[in-house]
Amino acid sequence: MKAMKLPKELQSFLEVAETAEEETLIFIKKKRPVAALVSLRKVDRESLALSTNPQFLRIIETARKEVRAGKTTSLEALERKFGVTAPNKRMEGTRKTRRSS
Fold first, then answer.
1. Which of 45, 50, 67, 87 is deepest in the core (most CB within 10 A)?
2. Read out DSSP for 40-71?
3. How many Å apart are CA 26 and CA 29, to the nearest integer?
4. How many CB atoms lie within 10 A of CB 53?
5. pLDDT digits over 27-60, tens only?
6. How far, in Å, CA of 52 to CA of 3, rounded?
7. Reduced to 3 states, what is the DSSP secondary structure of residue 36?
8. pTM score, two decimals?
9. 3-class DSSP state for residue 29?
10. What do you get for the CA distance between the two ends of the chain, in Å?
11. What does the domain layout of the chain look like in residue ranges?
């Protein structure tokens, strides 16, 4: 990721981005999208880095295809396979005990 100071000639783009708030502005050339301007007011660096990382985007797309194809495993099946209980389920018994005392 590269950061640079916005040249004066492009200051109006910054104003447009700020008024658009959470909307993405798409720039087109010959009726085709070529760039996007996104407000980063409520975005942390980690989210920005992940959302622009090609390897991460491939992982997400592969996972989405698997879900669409029904290739999923339930939490209960994973718990049985590995012989563990999810932390929240372990706490349920503790909570019930506390409430009854």
1. 50
2. -TT--HHHHHHHT-HHHHHHHHHHHHHHHTT-
3. 10
4. 13
5. 899 999 998 887 777 788 898 889 889 999 999 9
6. 14
7. strand
8. 0.47
9. strand
10. 55
11. 73-101
